[in-house]
Design a protein that fits this description.
Blueprint: H1 2-44, H2 49-65, H3 70-85, H4 89-102, H5 110-118, H6 125-141, H7 145-153, H8 161-174, H9 178-191, H10 199-214, H11 227-238
Helix pairs in contact: 1-2, 1-3, 2-3, 3-4, 4-6, 6-7, 6-8, 8-9, 9-10
């Protein structure tokens, strides 16, 4: 009887493993097809409320088909985008925080990466970095600039460094911290130097130029009564 029980357990494990693998494969195929439909619906959603509703439904469905997968993270990013377009910023914040929690943008060691692969976890720090940039923008739009800066300060990788610096510059410029904003923009322009011709890079350069032109000229000093003092003062300003 013990032999029969052992054989039964072994067969149950084999068939159970095969069933699980088949289920995962089917779920992956279904998720891929749903994701393609979702992308098409999102592209058509601008100005079309029916397509927008379809896109939201497909995104929620995708999160149910493959919860915790990269497909689910992509669905959350797209849902956040749709929520921003509807000005539902709190809902967008929730989706982006969920992505960042599942995909922290931290540098992982070789051992941690190997453990993740063995456990079937899909880690993508770059995806987390993208969610961080978008979350900072949403928080800024909500008027929570301190929270937005804190999110940027907590970044664990250099992914999307140009975008992070640009958001920081936008926040500081809105807070009338021109010096801090120009510093952030200059660093972003320097990093984006290899992307000449890119529209985003040109816009970044324009933001920096606008701040530099808005900087007030140095106020003239008090009128000097002595001609030599006036000349010295003029020479110092020229330098």
């Amino acid at each position: 009887s013990s032999t029969l029980i052992g054989v039964g357990l072994a067969l149950a494990l084999v068939f159970g493993w095969q069933w699980w693998q088949q289920r995962q494969q089917l779920a992956g195929e279904q998720a891929a097809a749903t994701y393609e439909q979702l992308l098409q619906a999102v592209d058509a959603a601008a100005g079309d409320p029916i397509q927008r509703t379809t896109a939201e439904h497909l995104a929620l469905q995708l999160k149910e088909i493959k919860p915790g997968s990269r497909y689910a993270d992509y669905a959350s990013l797209l849902l956040a985008r749709l929520n921003v377009e509807k000005n539902e910023l709190l809902a967008a914040e929730s989706e982006l925080r969920a992505v960042l929690e599942r995909q922290p943008d931290v540098v992982r060691g070789a051992l941690a990466a190997r453990v993740d692969r063995l456990l079937g976890r899909e880690r993508d720090p770059e995806l987390g970095a993208l969610a961080r940039v978008r979350l900072a923008r949403v928080l800024f739009a909500l008027g929570r600039s301190d929270d937005a800066l804190a999110v940027l300060d907590a970044a664990g990788t250099d992914d999307f460094a140009v975008e992070k610096l640009e958001v920081r510059g936008d926040i500081l410029a809105a807070r009338r911290d021109s010096a801090g904003a120009m510093k952030a923009y200059r660093e972003a322009v320097a990093l984006a130097g290899a992307r000449k011709g890119d529209t985003a890079s040109r816009l970044l350069a324009l933001k920096l130029q606008e701040l530099e032109l808005a900087e007030p000229a140095a106020a003239p000093g008090p009128a000097a009564t002595d001609g030599a003092a006036t000349a010295a003062d003029t020479g110092a300003k020229a330098q």
